[in-house]
Specification:
This protein is α/β, with parallel strands linked by helices. Helix content is 26%, strand content 26%. The strands form 5 sheets. The chain has a 9-stranded mixed beta sheet. Strands 17-18-16-15-19-22-23 form a 7-stranded mixed beta sheet. A 3-stranded antiparallel beta sheet has the order 2-1-3, with no helix packed on it. InterPro entries: AAA+_ATPase, DNA_repair_RadA, P-loop_NTPase, RecA_ATP-bd, Ribosomal_Su5_D2-typ_SF, Ribsml_uS5_D2-typ_fold_subgr, Rubredoxin_2.
């Protein structure tokens, strides 16, 4: 019996190698090569694209290509439509990742039920039986009429069934359970995940069927499988949420048809995930406005959000005081504390500093710089900011307060929620009628911001 040949695949970029090495020669990732049986001839060449063989492709001037408007259909869940960029695009492939039990399958089953009356769909499950899927739909109170499901993991048989049923939406739960008969590797391996995803992408583009792929995540928080998987799809959505919180956040990390970092907020209930149309009110509910608290206006995609930033400054018993952050970047906190000491005259070098964004939101933009510093100073001096004050702004290394994008939209959101005072960069100072609904204090240096916060 002939010995089965093996090859090694990089879990980061999908590159193959004939022997194991500590570092991938293509992307430079360390310890990313995994062993798998070699692919049979003929399969690998079809896994890189969906447009057909190279011999049938022709060079076409872009000026002669018809630019038809994207055909979108509303899912019926406003927060999901927002994250998708205004609805589901015909022929698009969306990858949804998140921790186990966070609600990926629940949300997609709800979306399929909402689309069923006007848009036939197919739920392909590789992890549960049809009885389990029907039981979940019943618990969620979803109508079973119009819902079609298939318990199958072989990608060839799935596409054969889909070609006969002709659904307009396919949900594959999950991509790591699918496998191809043309490969010898085990389901979940790099080659199987890559090939199965390529087949679904090609099917979606050729037939105009919209496809949702559910992806497992690794212990580091990334989607399991080769990173090429995220490059193949049109959109990558991540579910986020604290284990003890009923709120879930769906964030777009990649979207070819909408804004990146768009955010949708859901609340988990006994009837599934319910959308939260006004997340600012949820994130601000229960805020104490005590020492160490500052309200900021962040922007996620096209939506301004009001969130509370909390800081706790305490005498440190350690020779190297701790800098701990939740929802913020720890390296940026260290930089901001150095700016506060150098240009604001406030030193916390012998203090432990803890910062947290309430509600489990992760703030990645620089508009959080000024709120973090004001919260730190408020905790250090044990003096609370006014409960009707919001702030935002980027802090530079020389102590200047830099403007951030969409300042007027942020101020409008703050005024809508009853805030009366805003500490903002000079470049974001409101003009016209907006300045009458909220008092805007424009600052240009960190010293001015500290003085305005102490009034």
């Amino acid at each position: 019996m002939a010995k089965t040949k093996t090859t090694y695949y990089c879990s980061e970029c999908g590159a193959s190698a004939t022997k194991w090495a500590g570092q991938c020669g293509e992307c430079g990732a360390w310890n990313s090569l995994t062993e798998a049986p070699a692919e049979r001839g003929g399969a690998g060449g079809r896994s890189v694209g969906w447009a057909g063989a190279a011999s049938s492709a022709e060079v076409t001037p872009l000026a002669s290509v018809s630019q038809a408007e994207e055909v979108r259909m509303g899912v019926g869940i406003a927060e999901l439509d927002r994250v998708l960029g205004g609805g589901l695009v015909q022929g698009s492939v969306v990858l949804v990742g998140g921790d186990p039990g966070i609600g990926k399958s629940t949300l997609l089953l709800q979306a399929l039920a909402m689309l069923a009356p006007t848009c036939p769909g197919l739920y392909v499950t590789g992890e549960e039986s049809l009885g389990q899927v029907a039981g979940r739909a019943t618990r969620l109170g979803l109508p079973l009429d119009g819902l079609q499901a298939l318990a199958e993991t072989c990608i060839e048989r799935i596409l054969d069934k889909a070609s006969r049923v002709r659904p307009r939406v396919i949900i594959a739960d999950s991509i790591q359970t699918l496998w191809s008969e043309q490969l010898q590797a085990a389901p979940g391996s790099v080659s199987q995940v890559r090939e199965s995803a390529a087949r679904l992408v090609r099917f979606a583009k050729e037939t105009g069927t919209s496809v949702f792929l559910v992806g497992h995540v690794t212990k580091e928080g990334g989607i399991a499988g080769p990173r090429v998987l995220e490059h193949m799809v049109d959109a990558v959505l991540y579910f986020e949420g604290e284990s003890g919180s009923r709120f879930r956040v769906l964030r777009a990390f990649k979207n070819r048809f909408g804004a990146v970092n768009e955010l949708g907020v859901f609340a988990m209930s006994d009837k599934g995930l319910r959308e939260v149309p006004n997340p600012s009110a949820i994130f601000l509910s229960g805020s104490s406005h005590g020492p160490g608290s500052a309200i900021m206006v962040t922007r996620e995609g096209t939506r301004p959000l009001l969130v509370e930033v909390q800081a706790l400054v305490d005498q440190s018993p350690l020779s190297n005081p701790r800098r701990v952050t939740l929802g913020l970047e720890s390296n940026r906190l260290a930089m901001l504390l150095a700016v506060l000491h150098r240009h604001g005259g406030v030193g916390v070098f012998d203090q432990d500093v803890f910062c947290n964004v309430v509600g489990g939101i992760r703030v990645q933009e620089t508009a959080a710089d000024l709120p973090v510093l004001l919260a730190v100073v408020s905790s250090l001096r044990d003096r609370a900011l006014s409960g009707k004050t919001v702030c935002f702004g980027e802090v530079g290394l020389s102590g200047e307060i830099r403007p951030v994008p969409n300042g007027e939209d942020r101020l409008k959101e703050a005024a809508t929620h009853g805030f009366e005072r805003a500490i903002v960069p000079r470049g974001n100072a409101a003009k016209g009628s907006l300045s009458k609904s909220i008092e805007v204090i424009a600052v240009g240096r960190i010293e001015e911001a500290l003085e305005a916060a102490s009034d």
